[in-house]
Amino acid sequence: MMDLTAIKAQARKEGFARRKAAFDANGGGAGGYLSEILAGYRGVPLSGYMPIRTEINPLSAMAEAAAYGAVGVPVIQAAGQPLRFSKWQPDGAMKAGPFGAQIPEVDDFFEPEIVIVPLVAFDAQGGRLGYGGGFYDRTLELLRGRRATLAIGFAFAAQQADSLPLEPTDQPLDMIVTENGVISLT
Q1: Fewer CB atoms inside 10 Å of the end CB: C or N, the chain?
Q2: Topology, domain 4-184
């Protein structure tokens, strides 16, 4: 029997393959439903992310939301630490951050109440498989310990898996938005 690490590695490999195929077919952009969801939370501080590799692109929805309130992007502090979020503007100065994601040139940290979460794979129960560093799990646990925090998974529909190898420390998503629609889990 395979151990959980090997099972997760295989699930990630399959998720990356599905994501790449969807990215190639869609060109990466598909923010329409995300914009609709965020319109219902105008002014609520939120974090998106700067897409890397074959991640679905949230930037158009983030830019719309930035007209109404604080929008940030994650900044990795160190391995094993929660993320921090620095305020982002659509035309703001950026620099290279860890793992190739762009981060604001000047740190202006805040705590979001909505976190748009990139992922490798998800299931219909709100399970999420990320890159394996645990950054979002630690961060969501911290934020949810302070206040209600909405975790929105943003992915291509093809990234859905029947089930995922999850652990007790894995933080569930509250909602998943794809190019095809919204899966509400609450």
Answers
A1: N
A2: Rossmann fold (3.40.50)
